[in-house]
Each structure stands twice: as C-alpha cells, then as structure tokens.
Amino acid sequence: MQIRPAEKSDAQAMTDIYNYAIENLTATFDTVPSTVESRLTWLDEHVGPYPAIVAEQGGEVAGWGSLSPFHERPGWRFTVENAVYVRPDKCGLGIGKAILARLIELAREHGHHAIIAQIAGDNTPSTKLHQKFGFETVGVLKEAGHKFGHWVDVVLMEKLIEP
Length: 163
Hints:
The chain is of the alpha+beta class. It has helices at 11-24, 36-45, 95-109, 124-132; strands spanning 2-5, 52-57, 60-69, 79-86, 114-120, 136-147, 150-160. The radius of gyration is 15 Å and the shape is globular.
C-alpha cells in the first residue's frame, strides 16, 4: 500500500468512495451524491496546509483522507478537521489506520496544533481508530444530525499535536 497526495486522476475513485458513505453510512451527513466535478473543485482547495491523500493498493484507490480548516475565523487557523474514508470492500485491512497516521504527520509538518474528528455516535470503528491514535472524546452533540430517518449524535474527538 502506498499513501500519497491525491491527484485529479483520483477524483472518480474518491467520489465513488464518498458516495457509498453518503448512500449507506452516517459517516457524512451529506444526503445527495457528490459529483466528480465537485470533487475536482474540492481537490483544488486541499493543498498546502490542508492536504488530501489517498491510499493506493494494487494500483487502485482503496481510501482517502484529508485535513480541512475547522473554522474560517483566523483564531482557528491552527485547528483542522480530519476525514478518513475507506472503500467498503477494503475495510478492516489497516487502510484507515495508514491514512490517519499520515494525516497526523502532515498536521505536524504544517504546524497545526489540534485535529478535530467529528464522528457519528454509531460509528464505533471510527471512534476506536481515532482512540488508537490518541484522540480523546471532548464532547457529544446530542441528536445533531439527521439521516436515514433518525437523529444521530456526533462525538467530538481531539488530538493535540506536539511540535
């Protein structure tokens, strides 16, 4: 497996992985499938201190991750939010772990101080993954999201980055 910066040629695979999450999981509160065009625009915004990466396995994108600004106001400039998505047929193979490890390294390299993960309360695998990397639960937003006909809690997890 190779972890590398995402490229425009990865947009279709990244969109497919994300659309699976939209249609089947509470990992995102998006409810309308994404397009390759919107992913290409998104990739243009995920450079420098806010990178997007992919995990490539056997010549195919098996998962992707990103760091995004947590908030637009200047006082939040050292805090980022992470995202990790893995192709459904590749879950449980260590791909999410490799992506998250690299995102933490990139956060450190870019001088970020904190990484925030907003995880659906029913997404135990993601919660456990983040705990393995030292993320701590810092709050729960009760019934903050609504998807598939029910309310979903959002667990806020945070990791402080040591310089």
